[in-house]
Design brief:
heterodimer, A: alpha/beta, Rossmann fold, 2 domains, 35% helix, globular, B: mainly alpha, MetI-like fold, 75% helix
Chain lengths: 234, 527
């Protein structure tokens, strides 16, 4: 269980409150207008931003003060997930050992996750020689190799076309189901939340609302979400 | 590709004339002086042993200076990239100051701090270490590091800050050690710019004249530029001076070609004010190391400047009256050079952008041609050309303004072109649709949006010309002395107090010129 206990975040003038929990193994889409604080919330869970107030708990343990690397999470950003001077293999391997000194078993694992995301045979390519979709797959492969129970996705597929985006989300769903990972996805597209197909939380007007089933949320959007989606109401 | 050629009309022709005229002037100056030198050098009897020594010394000091500047800049840039502290922005701004500082002022400051009776030698002697001798190779290298270490630091800092912020978060999420951050994030970013930074500094040290004139000299510490000057003034051996100028030209052209093909300088003027979130370097030892480098760099920059200001203020009552007409001449030279550099840069850039493809690149390339020569080479060529017709001192000021204006052209272009390209990308199609071509496009579209880089380029040119101590030394007698030359004359007659007072006036005038132009551009900037 991930618990956001009376959490208040502040970045400059902007602040965001969240007070809810998420069961392990669930997939949650954080949806809302840009600038509403979706990424800020993810940053706090990842450990890039110390909260003004409140605690973050994972499996009952307070992780609020832990540095990013010590947290049970792995994160994908919108851009720059790959280091340009490393090839595909090393970009995944660096998630296991920053010194790039891998055991044979770890090497097998890197190959296996690359094969799992459909990149077998591209191990020696540099990021610049890959398509946008392939780059997303490398980043996802690294997340899989790290086997952390919490997968944070900060709009990593936003630059892809609709078909590719759906494909990547399906891949996230499949691999998360296999590993039992808990997924948090930042998006501003309702169809992404729908594709993830589990829970969604509206982040708007200084507050991240408690998660609820995505279909129910989209069928009867609360006022803040309705304003964002432009579906009338108020 | 010849889309825009077809609409050349009367007004467009004005642009062709301006830009073409600018290109012709640069070509004439660079190749005209080259031809004059080549003809004159024919009667020279080959390079003497002393000339070979000058070539060796030039290459040696440039190599050492560039290496030391780069090596010292690396830790300072890293410290600035990962530390936030009060005064950080002031320090990064100060790092830009040595570039516009009159060489003679800095040299005087360095002598005060590192000279025989300076602070550093007092400390060294107290510690039982031998005093350092500032005249000779040590002093030349010291001065070059003073000028170029800050430049290298700024370029490296820019490289650090061009690392995507996500990479630092990624590094934190993956548990990178400081060493892994260095290896996977910092080193690749630095490695991309390091060769270019090195060659750029090497080139700047290659053409150094005033430093060698004041701190070098003698058979063991003479640069080629200084040897050219001495061939003129001591031996009046024009043929040998011409031959040396050709050697210098060949070296510069080679280094400039290398520098341009590597591409050292970042195009856009970066904002060095912010630092990204990063988790490395939080340990106490890393903090101490970074703090130490920042402190050392600050002292190295501030002590010479501070000592000049103090000494200058103390001797201000002794300020000789010859300073004021010299200041007037320097201002005239600076303003004329600035006007020339801006006119040339705007004409060339406007024409280069209106021609697509190869034509545009050729025009642009002509603008960067002065990088491949040196002020002393141009001055020597003009001397050889004009000497039979005019007495050199009659043309001292116009020639100094001309050479400084042309030598600043590459800097002005580098400041203007990226912004002009952006304007073309943003509004070019609209301007095409409105039939805005030629000089009108320059006036109505570009100029209003160029205030900032124009102000910066003008400030840079004015400050550089104000501090020039090169060509002027070749042409002028003390009666036509500019302020830097006057400072030098006072130093040469060991009137150090008066020299430091005059240097303070020069320093203030140069900074004021830069500040006025640069501020002017910012105040009016709408972009």
């Amino acid at each position: 269980m991930l618990v956001l206990d009376d959490l208040v975040l502040q970045r400059g003038e902007f602040s965001l409150a969240a007070d809810w929990s998420l069961e392990e193994g669930r997939r949650l889409a954080l949806i809302g207008p840009s600038g509403a604080g979706k990424s800020t919330l993810l940053d706090a869970i990842a450990g890039f931003l110390a909260p003004l107030r409140g605690r973050i708990l994972w499996r009952g343990q307070d992780i609020t003060a832990l540095p990013p690397a010590a947290r049970p999470m792995t994160i994908l950003f919108q851009d720059h997930n790959l280091l340009p001077h490393l090839d595909v293999f090393a970009n995944v391997a660096i998630g296991l050992d920053p010194r790039l000194k891998l055991t044979d078993e770890e090497r097998r694992k890197v190959r296996a996750v690359l094969a799992r995301v459909g990149l077998a045979g591209l191990e020696n390519r540099r990021p610049e020689a890959l398509s946008g979709g392939q780059r997303s797959r490398v980043a996802l492969a690294r997340a899989l190799a790290r086997e952390r129970p919490l997968l944070l996705l900060d709009e990593p597929f936003a630059a892809l076309g609709p078909a590719l985006r759906a494909e990547m989300l399906d891949l996230v769903n499949e691999t998360a189901a296999e590993s039992g990972a808990t997924v948090l996805l930042v998006t501003h597209q309702p169809e992404d939340a729908r594709r993830l197909g589990d829970l969604a939380s509206v982040v708007a007007e200084g507050r991240a609302a408690p998660p609820m089933p995505v279909e129910r949320l989209l069928a009867a959007p609360p006022a803040a979400l309705a304003r964002y989606l432009g579906t009338g109401g108020g | 590709m010849a889309r825009r050629h077809e609409r050349v009309n009367g007004r467009a022709n004005l642009l062709v004339w301006t830009g073409g005229g600018a290109a012709a002037l640069v070509l004439l100056l660079v190749f005209g002086t080259l031809a004059a030198l080549a003809m004159k050098a024919e009667s020279a009897s080959g390079l003497q042993p002393g000339d070979w020594a000058a070539i060796r010394f030039t290459l040696l000091q440039a190599t050492i200076s560039a290496t030391l500047s780069v090596l010292l800049a690396l830790p300072v840039a890293r410290a600035l990239a990962r530390r936030r502290f009060p005064g950080r922005q002031l320090l990064t701004t100060l790092l830009g100051a040595p570039f516009i500082l009159p060489v003679i002022v800095a040299v005087l400051g360095l002598i005060t701090v590192f000279g025989r009776h300076g602070l550093v030698n007092a400390v060294l002697t107290a510690l039982g270490l031998g005093p350092i001798e500032i005249y000779g190779l040590t002093g030349v290298v010291l001065a070059h590091v003073f000028f170029n270490m800050p430049l290298a630091t700024r370029l490296f800092l820019h490289a650090h800050l061009s690392i995507p912020p996500e990479h630092f978060r990624l590094a934190a999420a993956l548990g990178f050690s400081d060493r892994a951050v260095r290896r996977h994030l910092e080193r690749p970013a630095i490695a991309r710019v390091l060769p270019g930074v090195f060659v750029t500094i090497f080139l700047l040290c290659l053409t150094s004249f005033a430093v060698a004139l004041t701190l070098g000299g003698g058979p063991r510490a003479t640069t080629i530029e200084l040897a050219i000057y001495q061939a003129f003034t001591f031996d009046f051996d024009l043929a040998r001076a011409a031959l040396l100028a050709l050697v210098q030209l060949a070296l510069c052209a080679l280094a400039a070609f290398l520098a341009l093909s590597i591409g050292a300088a970042p195009d856009a003027a970066p904002s060095l004010a912010t630092t990204p979130w990063r988790a490395d370097g939080r340990g106490i030892p890393a903090r101490i190391v970074d703090g130490g480098w920042i402190l050392l760099a600050t002292l190295f920059l501030m002590l010479p400047l501070g000592s000049i200001v103090l000494a200058g203020m103390a001797h201000l009552p002794d300020l000789p009256t010859v300073v004021w007409p010299a200041l007037g001449r320097s201002l005239l030279v600076a303003l004329a050079a600035t006007g020339l550099a801006l006119a040339l840069a705007l004409g060339l850039a406007g024409l280069a952008l209106s021609l697509d493809g190869r034509g545009g690149r050729t025009i642009e390339g002509i603008g960067f041609l002065p990088l491949a020569t040196s002020p002393m080479v141009l001055g020597a060529g003009l001397f050889v050309l004009l000497f039979p017709v005019f007495p050199p001192q009659a043309l001292a000021l116009p020639v100094t303004a001309l050479v400084n204006g042309v030598m600043s052209l590459p800097f002005a272009l580098r400041a203007l072109l990226p912004q002009m390209r952006r304007i073309e990308a943003d509004h070019g199609r609209l301007a095409d649709a409105l039939g805005l071509v030629g000089i009108n496009r320059l006036r109505r579209l570009h100029l209003p949006l160029l205030a900032r880089p124009l102000g910066f380029a003008a400030g840079l040119t004015a400050a550089l010309a104000m501090g020039d101590l090169g060509v002027i030394a070749l042409f002028a007698t003390p009666a036509e002395a500019t302020l830097p030359m006057q400072v030098r004359l006072l130093m040469a007659s060991y009137r150090m107090g008066e020299a430091s007072a005059a240097a303070l006036v020069l320093l203030l005038a140069s900074l004021a010129l830069f500040w006025i132009f640069d501020r002017g551009g910012r105040a009016d900037a709408r972009a």
